[in-house]
Amino acid sequence: MSVLNTLDTWTLALVVLTFSGTLLYIAYPDRLVTTNARPDLPGPKGHPLVGNSLQAIPWQTRILDWFNHLLSDYGPACTFTILPWGRGILINRPEWLAHIKQADMKMYSRGPYANKIFHEFPGGRAPVASEGAQWRLARKSIYPIFTVRSFTDHVSHAMNEIVPIARALLLSASKKGVPIDWSDFAGRIAITIFTRSHINEKTNILEGDVSCLDRDDPLRDALVTLNQISAKRLFNPVWQWSEILSGERWRFNHARSFIRRRVEDIWVDRLREEAMAIRDPTREAEYSEVARYHVHLAVFYETVRLWPGLPKNARLALQDDILPALPEHNLPAVKVEKGDYVFWSDYHMMRNEDVWGPTAHLFDPGRHLDAEGHFVKPSPAKFNCFGAGPRFCPGQQLVMYEFIACLSGILPYFDFAPSKGATASGLIYQKPELAESFTASLNVPLVVDVRARDTLEVLEGRL
C-alpha cells in the first residue's frame, strides 16, 4: 500500500488500466470482449479483445464474399466475433433457418443495432424496423396493399398502362438501334408501378420513346443512395462518425429529406384524386390469371431463388436456444446463447448443392415443374426467399403478379442480348454482379440490345 500511496493520480490510473487490460487480454485471448468462448463451433481465430473485427474490415463492402469464404472454410455452422454484433453464428442449412424464423420475435429478433439502422431507413414505422406490438401495428397498416382487391383495382390497372408503354419504349430502342441499360429500365418499371398503383402519381421516367432513359430520376437516385449507404453501416461500428468525414451522412440526409418531401406532396394529390375513375383494362395479364402461367411462375421462383431480394440477414437470440440436429446430414445440434447473433445468407443457401442438388448454381426453371408441365411451388422448408414464421413476406403475391404481367407483356415481342455498343450516355455492357446493398441490385449497368420480333407487327397499331 505504501508504494501505491507514493504514486500520483495519473500513474495510478495507468497501473490500473494496464492491470485491467492484462486481465481482459487473458480472459478474451481470441474473441471480442463480453462474448463467451465457443470451442464447439469452428471459425477463424480472432485477436485478443476485438475478436475477428480487424479481419472483417477488408470484407466490409463484400459481406457476401466473406460469408462464402467462411462457409467454404468452416462448413454450414461456424462462428466469429466482431463489433458491433458480438458473437455471430453463420448457418447454411434451411432446416435451421426455418427453426429460427418460426421463433422470430419470440426467441429471436433483429436486435438493437440492426433496428437502429433500419430506423434511419426505411423508417421506424416500417415493419422491418419494428418488433412486438409496433411490428403488428406496422404490418396491419400495410396489409391493404397486398389484398386481392388492391391487386385488381390498382395494380392491374397500372399494369395495363405501364406494360404497353414499356413495349413502346423497347420498340423505339429497337427501331433506333439504341442499346439500353436493362437494370435501369427494370428499375423505372418498378418505380412507375409503385407510383401509379399505390400513390396514383404519373411520372415521366418511363415513356414510349427510348430518349426518356436519358432523364435523371431523383426518386430512384435517392432510394439507391439510402439503400447503399445503409448497407455499409451493417458492418461499420463507427458509421455515425465515418460518414461525417466521408460526406455520406450529408448525402443520406439529403436523399431521405427528398423522399419525405415527396411523400408529403403525394398525400395531397391522393386526397384530390381518390374519387377519380380508372379507365377499363385492356388485355394485359390480370391477377386472376396468374395461376395459368405455369412456366412464368417457374421462371419467377427460379429467379428469386438465385437472386433473393434480401441476400443476407441476421437475428439476435433473446434467450438460449438449440438449433436441432440434422442426423441425415451428419450435423449436430447447434447451441445458440442469449445475446448471440445468427447470420445467414439466402443468396448462398439457395445455391447450396446439399439442398438443391448439383445444379444449384444453374438457372433451371424446370425444377419447379412437374412431369405434365404444371408449376410446383417449392417447399418452404428449403425455399426461404419470402421468409417464414411471423415475418413471412406479405408481398409475395404482389411481386409475383408484377413479374408475370411485365414478362408476358414484353418478352413475346422482343429479343434481348448483351450489347456490343454503348448507350447514349456512354454506358457499355459489363458482366453484372450483386452490389453490396440491402436488397438485390446490380453493381454495374446491364446494357442490352433490343430487337423487335415479327410478332410485334400486330401490336404496332396499339403502340
UniProtKB/TrEMBL annotation:
Q: Give TM regions.
A: 7-28
> GO MF terms on file?
heme binding; iron ion binding; monooxygenase activity; oxidoreductase activity, acting on paired donors, with incorporation or reduction of molecular oxygen
Query: SUPFAM superfamilies, alphabetically?
Result: Cytochrome P450
Query: Which ranges form a coiled coil?
Result: none
Report whether Membrane shows up as a keyword of the record: yes
Q: Which family does it belong to?
A: Belongs to the cytochrome P450 family.
Name of the molecule in the record: Cytochrome P450
